[in-house]
Write the structure tokens for this entry.
Amino acid sequence: MGKTTDVLKEYRYDGEKKLNLNKIVHDSGGREKQKDDLIKQTEQNLLEIDELQEKLYADTKESVLIVLQALDAAGKDSTIKHVMSIVNPQSIDVFSFKSPNTEEAAHDFLWRYHKRLPQRGKMCIFNRSYYEEVLVVKVHEFWKSYKMPERTINDDYIGQKYRDITAWEKYLYGNGYRIVKVFLNLSKDEQKKRFLERIERPEKNWKFSANDIQERAYWDKYQEAFEDAVNETSTQDCPWYVVPADQKWYTRYLVSEILVETLRDINPQFPEMSPDGTAQLAECKKQLEAE
């Protein structure tokens, strides 16, 4: 296995091991002395991601769906902005999902996400995703008030959603999608620090909501929900990456490593011209040079 795989092995969950959030770190794990080198590596990774994405877009065989999940203030938006800053906007889409509207709530929970899947050759980021059904819906037990048949509203509701998600991801993988699932693992102390910064700095006030404090009160339940979601839906083909989020430079490095490894594994290539196409190009060249 390559160097990148060795780096990510610590953070990858593919069904071979169980996640216990109480036993893993939220920072770089003592890699501060490597910070400058890892920042440089991040920039190199971004350049390679751009090159590979151009090939992916031209190849039009596979697509990459990036699922970002985290608690508030973990850095989803800044991670998207930084890691995707170099990619051609034409080849990537970003969707942020809020509470479902009336039309969305009238369909199955995967409906609105399936509509947003990228076409072959493109990358797409889900800022929050279908996993909200086994996170916020689970924590607040919203499912108990759903307007659905009684046979579906029972104690196995969340368990069924895990199975639905796993089956859907298997279906997508079999249809040319690579699914990159990233959980930004922020500590409670760091969330408090970032919330205070949003309150104290006027230019960041817009990022803060009183609802953030209300959700923070459910910290332990959310930790349990994230842990269960990872353990119930991690597979070899669609693994989870639980990425420390307390140090943004390290978070960005790891996410860039995850994406560049995924694209390397796809190994997209520019389409080769057929003999007729090559001949046509030669003829076009002659006509242009003769002008």
Notes: The first helix runs from residue 3 to 8. The chain has a mean pLDDT of 94. Residues 143 and 230 are 20 Å apart (CA to CA).
